[in-house]
Design goal:
GO molecular function, one term: ATP binding
CATH superfamily of the largest domain: HUPs
Largest sheet: 8 strands, mixed
Number of strands: 10
Strand content: 5-15%
Helix content: 40-55%
EC number: 6.3.4.-
Radius of gyration: 20 Å
Shape: globular
Oligomer: single chain
Order of helices and strands: EHEEEHEHHEHHHEHHHHHHHHEHEHHE
Enzyme class: ligase
CATH class of the largest domain: Alpha Beta
CATH architecture of the largest domain: 3-Layer(aba) Sandwich
Number of helices: 18
Family: Belongs to the TmcAL family.
Number of domains: 2
CATH topology of the largest domain: Rossmann fold
Protein name: tRNA(Met) cytidine acetate ligase
Length: 366
């Protein structure tokens, strides 16, 4: 089978722009199989996904995606370069031929990524610094300006990872235009109780009203407990806890009455808000560097949903020596330890089982 196309998404939440993106891929490229690698219950900027991974999987499959694979929390809550590293690793395991992503400008991503890697050989991202500023300033000094173009920057990171990992994936793009479709706008409207009817499919609007939607405000008490009841030595072991940040967290947490207030009290010029929010996810989940290293060294493919085309493709993948997971048993529990921990945190508020007894969403499958 040829023409295996894949893309990476958060769908937080799924909206009409996502449906248009999927439709455009099908109209422009006519894929035999379309695969989405989708962030699990946490997203890249250090937030809880509004809807859980199962609701978002249903939306994706019902909108034309053939197979949805989970992007583990250890990949999903990372800066752009590491986010791309994990995503490309999974897409390569899935044996896709083409990676599709949206971009503000049509450029030769492969050629530009090769140029960046040539000038970037000795450059190692220092995660103790503001990574966005550090990286964009470095590229700008070399005549490559990617500031204020988030999709283009992420696309470049995908292209660089394809080069670094030496995988046979071609890049295909969909040009993005200014539009009314915005996940950020939808999230704002949900807070202010404004209508989102014109922004999302009818099924998603129902999900947002009927399902348990969550945000950091629901979990601040658990984060507060974790920080207060941990020693500075224990906090130092948290993934990407650097330069005495553990002391700042312990100093400010007791006087903070909300997550937003806490973030304002710990922010600085050195760290972006997204960087700090990701650190709060690691802290809440008590994530250690060894766990992240293990995830990159031992990737797995967790299936969240598929249609008949996706099912057929999965059967072809089962012939390969892949760590393919469709349900959680004793063996899978060990592999999914970090993910299950993250899901159980979500369950503290939603009281909805995310792992045990859950099977992939199957559309049209007998």
């Amino acid at each position: 089978m040829t023409g295996i196309y894949g893309f990476v998404a958060e769908f937080n939440p799924f909206h009409n722009g996502h449906k248009l993106f999927i439709d455009t891929i099908k109209q422009k490229y006519h894929p035999d199989v379309l695969i989405a690698v989708m962030s699990s219950n946490f997203v890249q900027r250090g937030d809880f996904a509004i809807l859980d991974k199962w609701d978002r999987t249903v939306a994706a499959i019902d909108s034309g995606v053939d197979l949805v694979i989970e992007l583990p929390v250890g990949y999903a809550v990372e800066p752009a370069d590491l986010f791309a590293k994990g995503a490309i690793k999974l897409l390569d395991l899935l044996k896709i031929d083409h990676l599709v992503f949206g971009t503000e400008n049509q450029i030769d991503f492969s050629k530009m990524s090769q140029r960046i890697l040539q000038i970037d050989t000795d450059f190692e991202q220092d995660y103790q610094k503001n990574s966005a500023t550090n990286l964009t300033d470095f590229y700008r000094s070399k005549g490559i300006d990617i500031a204020k173009l988030p999709n283009q920057m992420l696309g470049l990171n995908y292209a660089m990872q394809i080069e670094k990992q030496q995988v046979g994936i071609e890049i295909s793009t969909i040009e993005r235009h200014e539009s009314q479709f915005s996940a950020t706008e939808i999230r704002k409207r949900l807070v202010t109780k404004e209508s989102i009817e014109e922004l999302v499919p009818v099924t998603i609007e129902k999900m947002l009203h009927q399902s348990s939607t969550v945000s950091w405000s629901d979990y601040f008490v658990y984060l507060k407990y974790q920080i207060i009841n941990s020693s500075t030595t224990e906090l130092q072991q948290i993934y990407q806890m650097v330069e005495g940040l553990e002391n700042k967290l312990q100093k400010e947490i007791s006087t903070s009455d909300s997550f937003n207030q806490f973030m304002e009290q710990i922010k600085s010029k050195r760290y972006t808000m997204a960087r700090l929010r990701r650190l709060m996810v690691y802290t809440l989940l008590n994530v250690k560097k060894t766990e992240i290293d293990n995830l990159y060294n031992n990737p797995y493919l967790r299936v969240l949903g598929f249609d008949t085309i996706g099912q057929k493709y999965l059967k072809s993948l089962k012939k390969e020596d892949l760590n393919l997971i469709t349900r959680v048993g004793k063996k899978e529990k060990k592999i999914l330890d970090l993910e299950i921990r993250a899901d159980r945190i979500r369950q503290l508020v939603t009281d909805q089982e995310e792992d045990f007894g859950r099977i992939p969403y199957m559309k049209g499958v007998n």
